[in-house]
Structure prediction request, 480 residues.
Amino acid sequence: MVRAALQPHSGAIGRGPRSSVRIVPAISVVAGSLCALLPIVSSAGWAPDIGFLMLIGWRLLRADAWPAWWAAPLGLANDLIVGTPVGQSVALWTAVMLFLDLADRRTMWRDYWLEWLLAAVLIVVNGAFDWRVAAWSGARVSFAAMVPAILVSIVAFPLAGGIVYRLDRWRLGR
Amino acid sequence: MAVAPTAGSRPGWSRRAQYSLFFSLLATIAGVVVGLILLALSLVAPRSYAAVRGAALDATAPVTAGLRAVTSTVGGLVSGATDYWDAARQNGDLKRLNQKLLQRMVEAKAIQLENGQLKAALQLRERSRDAVATGRIVGSSYESPRRFAVLSAGSGDGVQIGMPVRSAAGLIGRVMDTGRFASRVLLISDRANIVPARLLRGGLPVISTGRGDGTLDVRPLEVGRNPFKPGDLIITSGTGGLYPPLVPVARIVKLDDDGAVALPLADPANVSFALVERPFEPLAEEAPPPPPAPPPPKHKPKLVKS
Prediction:
């Protein structure tokens, strides 16, 4: 048995959740959205929607990272920062919260593969919605043009998940 | 902070906890509905959020511009170093090129002089084509299927929605959103940007549409034999009154069955300065009904023989 009190520089005494424990998840999602401001001038869209990856990363790690309706203001911030039509992320992100509440009831067990599969499904849905909204606003690109971004997002999800896990340990003071 | 067992399950016997969960569910559903309404509004009336989008652009563009300055400085150092590496050969090439360009310049000056005389003779009045503002391309929508770029000039510099944006190399696009200090440009490679153009060789009218991946889809207006050859240049025609005529647009790289794929001549990533101009015919900003036929001229302009 490890006695925390007997170890030199560790132990749980004096450690605990940080004062910012409730807003760290939301801040990290906004920080993900802010990645769209990097000065990358690209002739094609290939990068993952990092705000969205952080959002589903948090929600898959914890059901209580934030009250589900917080997804609406977070989506609005994403729309304004990234420049997508206002309302696109608001609708999709809150719908994702509802979907994952349902998924929580239906799934008997969870492991990394199932989480990655759920994330992949959500990423494809996000890409398809993005594509649909672009078509509604007059830009009918072929769906094949979306495939690289979707694949990059699916591969990048474990990275976002890792960042979320570290942040979660940090905010809870563990 | 305790971890809830699973979301949505009954949180015990506490009425308060049950109500709070129920409120959260209702609020989330309301979030979806509000989001869909906002989205519908921004699709039906794209300018309804112009003010708030402009403000967001103002708040975020300085970050991008600052980071862009850093990356271009680093990039400039690297490419500057490689230029020194290869200086002797480059020097020779440039001297030869310089000779050729000097010859061309003399020819062009002669043509310009002649053109000026002819125009003066015809008493043509040209609208001045001064740039409204100049800015730098600092960022782009690299996370999206749409092709937007962020320009470091806004309504404070006189930029308005709908103005065409070009660089020395060619056409870049048109302004979509404006903030005070920054604006968002719809690039010509976006699917929703249609440029009336013509083939430089022969002047055949064509239509250029973005493909969303940095290339353009070029089709002739008249159905028939495919008129394109790889390497052909496309320039704007001025039809429609938004884009000024005679601005280089793209170079044909590949033919397909009834059109061609072209590469824009102005690469937004390498444009040092972008010029914002007034719409070629200002009426084009709001897509007006076609103008009435002009009255017949009272007297013909006199041709002065020189």
